[in-house]
Design goal:
Elements (H helix, E strand, L loop, with lengths): L2 H13 L35 E9 L6 E8 L5 E5 L6 H16 L7 H9 L8 H22 L3 H4 L8 E9 L2 H13 L4 E6 L32 H19 L4 E5 L6 H11 L6 E3 L10 H7 L4 E3 L6 H9 L5 E2 L9 H13 L3 E2 L9 H13 L6 E2 L5 H6 L5 E3 L2 E3 L12 H5 L27
Helix pairs in contact: 2-4, 3-4, 6-7, 7-8, 8-9
Bound molecules: D-gluconic acid and magnesium ion (MG).
Magnesium ion (MG) binds next to loops.
Length: about 450
Amino acid sequence: MDRRDVLGWMSAGAAAGGLGFLSPPARGGQAKTQEEPPANSAARGLPPLKITDISTILTAPNRVRLVIVKVSTSEPGLYGLGCATFTQRARVVQTAVEKYLRPFLIGRDVDQIEDIWQSSYVSSYWRNGPVLFNAMSGVDMALWDIKGKRANMPVYQLLGGKCRFAAHLYAHVSGRDIKQVEDNARAAMARGYRHIRVQVGIPGMATYGTRVTNEPTNREVIGPTNPRYVWEPGAYLRTLPKLFEHLRSTLGDEIELLHDVHERIAPHQAVGLCKELEKYHPFFIEDPLPPEEKDHFHLIRQQSSVPIAMGELFNTQQEYVPLIAGRLIDFIRIHISQIGGLSPARKVAALCEFFGVKTAWHGPGDASPVAHAAQLALELASHNFGIHEGYVFAPETRAVFPGTPEVKDGYLYAHEAPGLGIDIDEKLAAKYPVTDDPPFDFRWGTTRRRDGTVIRP
Ligand code: GCO
Ligand code: MG
């Protein structure tokens, strides 16, 4: 087909209602519309379906602002759910979905997931980024959910079928001091976990990942940071090898230990830390450097065999492909909704397999249960699955999302149902509204060094 034919095909489709641009031109030059799927359509036997509505459901059970996208179809009662959660910018994602994607996509054929992704991607000339990609992810996951429901199969079947019965999880363990980390690690092991992420509080410092600081009365969750404290890396860098030494000598060699640096140290410190931790055989060390310093991963690689996990802040292929293709990381930590949903994630998973990189998708509490269900579908079907970030949702959140995957003995099990296997109780969700106070949720705040310099992040 030369360029003139393509243009003729597109305009004939547009003339037929604007929806026929994916139907091949019929013999004799006449384009078919989507109302008449081609005879060899994979949807043979199923009625053609259109997107009739796209809405957002904002809900904050357990005080985490979740953004869920619901795509409704022309089949009464058939809808899909996707995760578009960007906790710190929930309203902006909501606007992107409702004001831009909704009018752009109403009327589209629900079966054309890839084309919907590609056309949404360029529906504004400036593209990608956490807002637009989370919005697209909400739609994308919802379309996979619908396709699974239509096929009467769980999404993992559509992605190739199970190659494991469940996904290994890692438990989040932290403590005010090394001894408390050990105690909490033992408790997690007793619950069946074989993989444990360990974070220890550094007195007086806004340490990432610890629930408590040196103040025993401080019950604040220090999600990312606690702006009431400063951050200087010295004591942290001296403590971490001691933590690993202690845990290896008290817990033994069988337990897999993970740690998240959360991008707060300089490149030369990252190299030194990875070298020091090597003898304790960590399962992985996460984000020793921020994305802005990704070229320094070469230095770590040259000097240490510690497995590196990286990627939760990445948006686009321009950012993560070089690290994968350069064999500079061992686990990809991308946040699936941050890169646009399951459609790009399955491509990343396949790419990673060929470069010896395993998946460890980012999945803390600010990824909704819908995101975890979507991730799990891909993990069950990916040979190069590494580990699932274990977040045990509180009963309120589980009640809002019936079908939240089950945690058992350190494994995450899919809810065996067509589609993503997860639903939302909209009435209950409405009981946990997202409020605008405080304006930054998840207690995200600016953490600074002693002299006032802002740290990233
Ligand atoms: C992780 C992450 C999270 C992020 C959080 C930001 O590895 O789980 O680093 O804890 O800090 O998702 O909102
Ligand atoms: Mg992290």
